[in-house]
Amino acid sequence: MVDKYTVDKTTVDKNTADKNTVDAPAGTPKAARSKGPFRVVKLVLFLAIAVAALIWVGRWFYYQHTHVSGDDASIVTHEITVSSRLPGRITHFSLIEGDSLSRDDIVAQLYDRPDQLRLQALQAKVAGMQAKIAYEQQRIQLSKDQLNGGIKETRDELQADESALQAAKAVMDSAEKTYKRSKDLVHSGAVSAQKRDEDYYNYLSALADYERAKRQVVVDHTALENAQTGLMSSPQMVLPNPNLLRAQLKVTEQELAQAKADLQHQQVHLNDMTVRSPLNGIVDKTLAESGEYVSPGQPILMMHAPTDVWIVAKIKETKIGELKVGQPVDIRVDAYPDTHYQGHVQVIGRAATSQFALLPDPNPSGNFTKITQRIPVRIAIDKGPKAALSPGMMVEVDVDIRSGGH
Question: What is the CATH number of domain 307-359+369-400?
Fold first, then answer.
């Protein structure tokens, strides 16, 4: 006996199958009718992929003919080695790699206690020389005052003695005339012999006074000449001639100049005991420790300026002829793939990198394998954050050779 439910389900499935086959064209296979739309989709998708691949290949070929690419490139900078000019033991050094330094920041401090003491001694010496010069200048002024006073006193004495000489001459002339008159009158008896003798002695006395006055004037002239050179017997002249003191002052000034030069040299020496940063930069590597004794020129650390970076790309020699200075360059930094950098060709090298190898290949066997050489090309960075770049970072460059450069 057939179950009623089974008969009804069979009837329903048959009706459903009949309905699904009504819409298909007559004579069309059942498998073909179900796979037709999927074939169209696959064909369109394949054609789209093929067109995209052709476009990509075309663009790739075009890019290869308009650009010179290089993946053997890196960031380069001026690596500055900071060292001490003087020998000494480092008493302070706390920098580590990656620290930032501004220009004139202290890098390291050398032991400088003896140098500080010598600096103080030289400062005291300079101060003493300056005080000595001030003292000698006062002596010169005092000597000038004394000399001027002595000259004036001697000149006044000369003038007084010259007046006394004139007076003595007048007295002598009068006495001579009186004596001559008495001498003439004594024969006539108008004047007695006693009067004549008295007039004669008066004349001799006046003559002696005149001669004494003449000699005094000569002495006064000599004294005035001596006074003008500072050679005076006056007790007020206790200092040497100002000219002599000025000469001595020049000697002292030269000694002061030498002392100042020694002081300046010691100050420079002491300043060099403090090693300072020569530029604004980043510490790349430390080469000394606090407490270590360093020699002159011994490196203490290495640093570079973060904005003073460029790229050196090693381009195949077969492509170097297409490069010109000034051509634009697209730059991709491996460390920052999402950051866009641009630059330009700055310098094209004139020698292959193999010429600077530490161990060149002399090829003694005579076997030769031709290898494409690489030429270094310097690329300046025009756009992009330079400060984020570190020396040694790997980059890739694409030089646009469509531009003629300059």
Answer: 2.40.30.170
